[in-house]
């Protein structure tokens, strides 16, 4: 259980529910991965005679007890009993931040440390990466692009990638150090769900293409092999640059 999830559970108990509250998170992330936005659902049973919480009241109360935690509640909605934060999601969007132009990790701006990845070798061949990303779109067996864990035997490796974008971005206060020639780029992926460490492996493979270690065609070949052991060693992107951007739902169902 991630630390912010533990803090969320503790904050919820201060609402004085009749039965303990359990949060159901839409997406769990590896240690070192960030979330710009995540979703969860919970059931609150109050004492007899007490009215249900109003949405704004719930947000204020939870945030009051989360003051020491690196997490904030932004919105709350009353939903149907059939809603589930994880299984009702239509899609999830992840963003990975790359920093180009660094010849040594000490050149990463201090405010960007642990918030991006600066691959070795300086600048990347972005057009080649964009050509390679095209092979990831659509429905495929992504066995080569997942790490093995205890859930592997029970989860299908077939996933549908709905979107892959590679575009220039900006860093925190980066306009103050434009003279350094650093470039921030974002890789954005959208799918209904992803396999364990799939995004980090896809990013790592695309970066290898940008470095000239792989060709765009190699991405297609890795997909066709369907074997996680075929993934290039040490190519997986580190967790620091990965952000869960959003979780999308059907508004009517929510």
UniProtKB/TrEMBL annotation:
Signal peptide extent: none
Keyword Cytoplasm found: no
GO biological process, one term: tRNA pseudouridine synthesis
Start and end residues of each Pseudouridine synthase I TruA alpha/beta domain: 133-250
The keyword tRNA processing is annotated on this UniProt entry: yes
Keyword terms: Isomerase, tRNA processing
Family in the record: Belongs to the tRNA pseudouridine synthase TruA family.
Name of the protein in its database record: tRNA pseudouridine synthase
Species for this entry: Apteryx owenii
């Amino acid at each position: 259980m991630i630390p912010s999830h533990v803090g969320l559970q503790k904050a919820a108990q201060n609402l004085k529910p009749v039965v303990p509250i359990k949060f159901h998170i839409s997406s769990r992330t590896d240690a070192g991965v960030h979330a710009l936005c995540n979703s969860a659902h919970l059931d609150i049973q109050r004492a007899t005679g007490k009215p249900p919480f109003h949405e704004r009241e719930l947000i204020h109360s939870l945030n009051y007890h989360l003051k020491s935690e690196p997490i904030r509640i932004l919105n709350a909605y009353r939903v149907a009993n059939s809603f589930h934060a994880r299984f009702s999601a239509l899609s999830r969007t992840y963003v990975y931040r790359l920093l180009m132009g660094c010849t040594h990790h000490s050149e990463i701006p201090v405010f960007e440390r642990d918030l991006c990845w600066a691959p070795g070798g300086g600048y990347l061949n972005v057009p080649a990466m964009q050509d390679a990303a095209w092979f990831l779109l659509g429905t495929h067996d992504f066995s080569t692009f997942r790490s093995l864990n205890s859930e592997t035997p029970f989860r299908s490796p077939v996933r549908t990638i709905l979107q892959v974008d590679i575009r220039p971005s900006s860093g925190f206060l980066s306009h103050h150090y434009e003279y350094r020639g650093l470039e921030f780029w974002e890789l954005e992926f959208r799918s209904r769900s992803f396999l364990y460490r799939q995004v980090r492996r896809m990013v790592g493979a695309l970066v290898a293409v940008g470095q000239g270690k792989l060709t765009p065609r190699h991405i297609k070949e890795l997909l066709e092999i369907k074997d996680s052991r075929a993934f290039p060693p040490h190519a997986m992107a580190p967790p620091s640059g990965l952000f869960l951007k959003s979780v999308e739902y059907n508004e009517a169902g929510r």
